[in-house]
Write a structure and sequence with these properties.
Blueprint lengths: L2 E2 L1 E3 L2 E3 L3 E6 L2 E10 L3 H19 L3 H17 L1 H12 L3 H22 L5 E4 L5 E9 L2 E5 L7 H12 L3 E5 L5 H13 L7 E3 L4 H9 L6 E5 L2 H13 L3 E5 L4 E5 L5 H13 L9 E7 H16 L19 H17 L2 E4 L3 E2 L7 E2 L2 E6 L4 H4 L6 E7 L2 H9 L3 E2 L1 E5 L3 H10 L4 E4 L15 E2 L2 E2 L9 H4 E9 L2
Parallel strand pairs: 1-5, 8-9, 8-11, 9-10, 11-12, 13-14, 13-21, 14-19, 18-19, 21-22
Antiparallel strand pairs: 2-3, 4-5, 6-7, 7-25, 12-24, 15-18, 16-17, 20-23
Helix pairs in contact: 1-7, 2-4, 3-4, 3-6, 4-5, 9-10
Bound molecules: adenosine-5'-diphosphate (ADP).
Adenosine-5'-diphosphate binds next to helix 7 and helix 8.
């Protein structure tokens, strides 16, 4: 098997490789991927620093053309890349192809942004002086990504970084180097000058840490766990660098008595269990008022029985496996914790055997949960959800907001009054009415509040806040 290497200063390099394993079939090796060490990371950062002066002054048409070309190739190869994604991460083929299309759309959007970057001209408070406000690239951007969106998250960090003239050192999650390698290869062949985009695959504690420890990384964008996010923050404060964090969620989905039962059940099923519950926007707390509670639980449980959990690449599969053995163990631990805490397991939670050896888990639903239980407070990051019974809308809103996190929040209701009040009062970065808490557009801001996020929003025009720095220029008119 050939080794997929790291890209450092425009050269593919590295011979120390590890296997990328398919979670739907552990006998299937997706490929061999190089592991960088700290010296490789330093070389990548030096290459990005050297490439910055020229790239940050490059013409906007050159950047536009490269990002457009990358978008076109991703779109043309969507079936193949979507398959690679499903094979290495375990989400279904439809989800894998959908995510690949989204990556292509993101590169297309930021190709357009290259041509739309504008500043402001403002009269000075002093006569005869002009003030211009411009945006400039920040410098070398470090990008650290998680395994759950192997192509979309790298795309939504790399595309704006390059569009606004930054150079990049990119470290993908160890479990999903395949999609990361593919988009770096695409961008490299699309014509990026050497050193503008560097790929360093490998362990977080080695590769990620070496990025955090470098004084030459000017900005760090991170998506992953709360614990690692804190390390990114501390190291960034130490080096006085800009940083942006997207971390966990414990997203609530409120179901009111007046909800359309079908809408409520389908949205809950989707948000709690699709993509194997491995989305930071997944809803794991279903907060249900007492008038609809029993009907909702009966309908959701019935619906869960018909969901097909199997090999991600198989036609008809609706939910793929959990990403790896340690995540599966963690999910199953939480099922035990929920039972011990006194919640009632009404469906699922057991390991499943399928034709191929993989990490299959039957989606689990608890009822009789309280918001104080660990299963209601800690992010599980798997197909495990609990129903919390509440008296009325006021209690539902209070429970929804009673969490250390604040990424996404949803409600199922036919009441305009409650929907409007909820949109205004949900303590979250994103609010959904009669829609799943997961599943967002690529051209509008993404991000949260409280323990979920830190720094400017990602995606859409708002991405400029993080990936540029503002300069205020004063000129005497003469
Ligand atoms: P999860 O694996 O639960 O998504 P992590 O925070 O462990 O969350 O991983 C997210 C990303 O952070 C991965 O690319 C991982 O390799 C990286 N990472 C893990 N530990 C460190 C660290 N000490 N320094 C920098 N990056 C790290």
């Amino acid at each position: 098997m050939t080794i997929h290497q790291n890209l450092i200063g425009g050269t593919w390099t590295g011979s120390n490789a590890i296997e990328n394993i398919n979670p739907s079939d552990t006998s299937d090796i997706v490929g061999l991927y190089a592991r960088a060490d700290a010296a490789d990371v330093q070389a990548a950062i030096a290459a990005a620093k050297a490439a910055f002066p020229a790239w940050s002054r490059s013409g906007i048409l050159e950047r536009h053309a490269i990002l457009r070309k990358a978008s076109d190739e991703i779109m043309a190869r969507k079936e193949e890349l979507g398959r690679l994604l499903s094979r290495e991460e375990g989400k279904t083929l439809a989800e894998g192809i959908g995510e690949t299309i989204r990556a292509g759309q993101i590169f297309d959007f930021f190709a357009g942004e290259c041509l739309r970057l504008a500043g402001e001209t403002i009269p000075s408070v002093r006569p005869n002086i002009g003030v211009e406000i411009t945006r400039e690239a920040v410098g070398v951007v470090g990008i650290i990504t998680p395994w759950n969106f192997p192509i979309a998250i790298p795309a939504w960090k790399i595309a704006p970084a390059l569009a606004y003239g930054n150079t990049v050192v990119f470290k993908p999650a160890e479990l999903v180097p395949g999609c990361a390698w593919a988009i770096v290869d695409i961008l490299h062949r699309a014509g990026l000058p050497a050193g503008v985009l560097n790929l360093v695959m490998g362990k977080g504690s080695v590769v990620g840490q070496a990025m955090l420890d470098s004084p030459d990384v000017n900005a760090m964008t991170f998506t992953g766990s709360t614990g690692t996010g804190k390390r990114v923050a501390m190291a960034s404060i130490e080096h006085n660098r800009k940083y942006q964090l997207e971390m966990g969620g414990k997203n609530p989905f409120v179901v009111l008595d007046d909800a359309d039962l079908n809408v409520a059940v389908e949205a809950s099923l989707n948000s709690a269990f699709f993509s194997t519950g491995q989305r930071c926007t997944a809803s794991s707390r279903l907060i249900v008022t007492e008038g609809i509670h029993d009907r909702f639980v009966a309908a959701l449980t019935e619906r869960m029985k018909s969901v097909v959990v199997d090999n991600a690449l198989k036609a008809g599969t609706q939910i793929g496996p959990v990403v790896d053995a340690s995540q599966l163990a963690q999910d199953m631990d939480y099922v035990e914790i929920g039972k011990r805490e006194g919640a009632k397991l009404v469906f699922g939670g057991e390991r499943l055997n399928r034709e191929t050896e993989g990490f299959y888990l039957q989606p689990a639903l608890f009822t009789e949960a309280t918001n104080q239980m660990r299963i209601s407070r800690e992010e599980i990051f798997g197909p495990v959800a609990s129903v919390i019974r509440v008296k009325d809308y006021e209690e539902a809103l209070a429970v929804a907001n009673d969490t250390p996190f604040g990424l996404s929040s949803g409600i199922a209701t036919t009441s305009l009054k409650h929907a409007t009040h909820f949109k205004r009062n949900a303590e979250a970065g994103m609010v959904m009415v009669n829609l799943p808490t997961a599943g967002v557009d690529f051209h509008v801001p993404f991000g949260g509040r409280k323990g979920s996020s830190f720094g400017p929003r990602e995606q859409g025009r708002y991405a400029a806040e993080f990936f540029t720095t503002v300069k205020t220029q004063y000129t005497l008119a003469g």
